[in-house]
Each structure stands twice: as structure tokens, then as C-alpha cells.
């Protein structure tokens, strides 16, 4: 098995990791019952009861899966 | 005929992919709804819908062709007796894929693929008929208008194009020279 000959320097490690970038997701804005919500497009949403516990996943008014 | 998938096979090789698709479709026909990764669901959709098309035909040769893929006779029986009659009124689009977010362990995008067992909604048939009726009424006058418009435009556009080209060539030559002079001065 090929093995590195030298220890990678702290500088090289940090230079590599400086290229890791987070990208913001594209959200869609919807107004439900007067409240503005942001959600991922084309993806099922979790339906919760008044206490905030997840009940099931829903997409376009159709139950998709259990949460 | 489903379009061949681009890119690498699922799993390790062609045989592994065939087995995975066969097992996924068997699980889909058994449970009517399965959760899998988005990639597998997208590959499974044309494969499974082709099997349902065989089931709708319903004769012995098509049953044998399905049995060549799915070895479980019980599931094939269920496909031919339960699923095929439900799909009889539906012209394709037998499955539905819904994305449900990423998996916890490896962050793989997951999806639910399910058989569309609901009866075909009569609303769409009415809408299609209405659209066809309007399309029949509309196109005849529109075509005449566009033909006359094209004939009127064509000579003008040809002339304008020539003049524009000549103007460009005249301008571009001196501008290039001036740019060269500017670079020389900088040096």
C-alpha cells in the first residue's frame, strides 16, 4: 500500500482546508396562514402538530412517508 | 423503450445493477411504496414501468418475460392480478418519485418511489379536450399572419445586415491600430 513519505505541514493542511466552502441552499418563500416560511423546493415537508412533534411527510397535499 | 442510463452502473458492474434493479422492482411491487436513494429511484422508474406494461398485456409470453427479471412467482402474480387492472386506464406514469431530504448516516439524498394506484382523474381528460378544441379553432388565421410578416421582413433585414457588416469592418481596422499604438506607448 502506498504511504506518505513526509508529514503534511500545518500550512499545507490549512491551505487545503481553506478551499472548503459552504453554499447557501436556494429556498422558496411561501405564506401559510399569514406566516412566511422558507423551505427547500421539490421536497416533501414535515407536518407537525401544535406541540411541534413531527407527524408525517407531505408533498402537494399528499402524505408521502412517516416522519 | 426506456432511454439507456448515462454514467456508471449502480453497484459494482452490469450484473450487480441488473440484480439491484430486479430486487428494487420486486420490493416496489410487493410493498407498493419503497424508500431508496434518489439515484436508484430514478433508475428504477423506467425499469419498473416497463414491467407494468408487460403486466397490462397479461399474456403468457409477457408473464415469462417478467419472470425472467423477478424470480418470485408470488410477486409476479400480484403484479399481473392486482396492479395491472388498476393501471389499465393509465397511459404510462405508473410510479411517483417524491424527494424526502438527505439520509442521516451518509447524507445521501433519499426519495420515496410509489405506485400510482389512484384512478385517473377525469379533470385532465376534460382539460385536454378543451385544449384540442381551442387549438383546432386557433391555428389557421395565425399561420397566414406569420407568413406575410416573414415575406415583408426578409428584404429589409438583408439590407440592414450588409450595411452593418461594412460599418463594422471600417471601424474595426483603425481601432485595432490605435490599440497597438497605445500598448507601444505603455512599454
From TrEMBL, chain A:
Superkingdom in the source lineage: Bacteria
Keyword terms, alphabetized: Ribonucleoprotein, Ribosomal protein
A biological process term (GO) from this entry: translation
GO-annotated molecular function: structural constituent of ribosome
GO cellular component, one term: large ribosomal subunit
Keyword presence, Ribonucleoprotein: yes
Key word Ribonucleoprotein present: yes
Residue numbers spanned by region Disordered: 1-22
Composition skew (Basic residues), residue ranges: 1-19
Residue ranges of the TM segments: none
UniProt cross-references to InterPro entries, sorted A to Z: Ribosomal_bL32, Ribosomal_zn-bd
Entry's family note: Belongs to the bacterial ribosomal protein bL32 family.
Cross-referenced NCBIfam families: rpmF_bact
Name of the protein in question: Large ribosomal subunit protein bL32
Species, as recorded: Zafaria cholistanensis
Organism placement in taxonomy: Bacteria, Bacillati, Actinomycetota, Actinomycetes, Micrococcales
